[in-house]
Design goal:
This protein is α/β, with parallel strands linked by helices. Helix content is about 45%, strand content about 15%. The chain contains 19 helices and 14 strands.
Amino acid sequence: MIWIYNIFIFFYQFIVKIASFRNEKAKQWLVGRKDIWAQLEQQLPSKEPIIWIHSASTGEFEQAKPIIEQLKNSYPAYKVLVTFFSPSGYNAARKYALADYKFYLPVDTRRNAGRFLNIVRPQLVIFVKYEFWYHYLKSISSRNIPLLLVSSSFRKNQAFFKWYGGFYKKMLHFFTWIFVQDVSSLNILNQQQIIHCSISGDTRFDRVAAIEENFSEIPLVARFTANENVMVAGSTWPEDEELLETLAAQFPALKFIIAPHEINEGHIQNIQNRLPSPARFSQLKDNESNLQDYQTLIIDNIGMLSRLYKYGSIAYVGGAFKTGLHNILEAAVYGKPVIFGPNYQKFREAKELISAGGAFSITNAADLQQKISILLNDQHALAVASEAAANYVSNNKGATARIFQTIQEKRLLTR
């Protein structure tokens, strides 16, 4: 099986090279790994101890942040190195001050894994949620470096648990300890005789709670939304924006803040053409006197979304008509009812928030209009959903503390 995996890694690189001629993300993927070994050798200290944390992309890095912050508090002598598979994750981390070193992860080959570990010499390695790179995991385990998987979740239909899944399951045994989000994941692992695991919960709850607790105002947005019913639509795709266009026609008094997943010029212009009275955030000024002339505020930057939801009456989170639902906890923490599309079954928090009464799934424009009509016209219904959303987040905090309790009990790091 390992030879099939190695062939896959080889051809993946080849495909990315071909795609890079037309695809900007593929180009960044390649450019970011150029001269990676020289960068590592030049930037990393020769003596300071390092904790290495790997996240696939932006969402997983949000899960890593509470852990990084606690590491800095509890183990200040250690430097934190973060790696990423995707350009979006790397770009999201560039301005994050608590990570001392940020790199793309070199491609997973046996040679690369050994070379990387020889340079970094980590005292502890943490992989976030998923991304199982065989050679890295095996090399870490063979060197007896503590290796943790955090905020993970498992389903019975994953490759680990299929009849052909021995190769994949073997990677789970490389971990020193696996922290899962829920009882279902724990039971699935235990049924496979994987017992080096425990329930911690999801560190995203700690992350969004910290953002809410340390909220900083966005004055222009506050003035745009003052005393108005507002829908904040985050991480939207064209499929989501098509529904919002129909909704705007049915609710002309409803204001919109739209933070699309992609902020390239073509996508922004498409939103401007769809939604009524649009304005770009970047083209407005804090002293703008005519904000009330606009019905739609388009956020054409990255990094604001987790604060924007506070300004809405209702939140819409995109992705569940396309690639997969984006982060609904960023909205729920502020006590905002959350609406999203039909493809949410792989997201535990979506199913649980629906059951709690703080979220609603829709399948078409008529569904969306009906939900909005109920929430805007029935203050009791809005209050109940809002309280359910806030309580759901509050009741699920604490994953970071549970992870650190295990780190300390097992003495995986020394102060």
